[in-house]
# Entry
Amino acid sequence: MLNTITGTTLTRCQIKRIIRYERKVMKALCYSAKLVAGYHAKRNPDLAKRYATASSKISGARATLRLIDDIPMIQYALEYGLGENEPDRVMAVLGVTANIVDLIYYPIEKVCWLAEHKIVDVKNADSWDNVNSIFWVLSVYLNLMRLVIMSNKYYNFNYHLFSTFRTMRNFSLNQEKLNRTANLSDLDSKTVGKHRLEMVSIARISLDFVHAVSTLPKGYLWGGKLTTFQVGAIGTISAGLGIYQIFAKRRLNK
# Structure
């Protein structure tokens, strides 16, 4: 519990929701500034430079805030355990693997942060950055696959590791059928709303995956091939979807 200045008591869930909202807003500001910088790169270099600086500063603040994410991550991994509550072994394996990747990823990111700010002397800092990018890609990919499989299971589809777009298409077809069905119960409406949010999550994390892969060294998939404008657009859309999800979940839980 936390008492605010006005005397209102905030629960732990409300505090977490506020923190998530603040993180999403910072992400939106960071990448929208990068978007503007990329758009004006040739049109107005001076303006582009100012927005690029703003984006870099906000990105640095976001990286600093992530320094305290280890404890919640460790707590979640311990509570998750070996995925005993998952519906099948595939989901459990993906969940445990994702947690292991995240537990490795966070310390690596901290080493990169320390090296960037010259707090410690890290040899081969570029190699650490590359490893950091690899674990970021793995983390996002595993979480994306978990969402895809969960959605496919709900709609009774056969799933495989590259079924993201088919999942979204099938959801769209089912959504059209539901829209033609009158007098849905409140339970049905909430179920549809829940799975609509899952599709938004798949779209958002797919964008994050595209962005993460772009940070890989050149020669690996599309690593280093996205322009500043493209990265800004992807990050801005992803952040916008994240903010939408926060408010949509709040309405759904009322």
Observations:
- The longest helix spans residues 125-154.
- Residues 157-165 have pLDDT under 50 and may be disordered.
- The two ends are 21 Å apart (CA to CA).
- The longest strand covers residues 2-3.
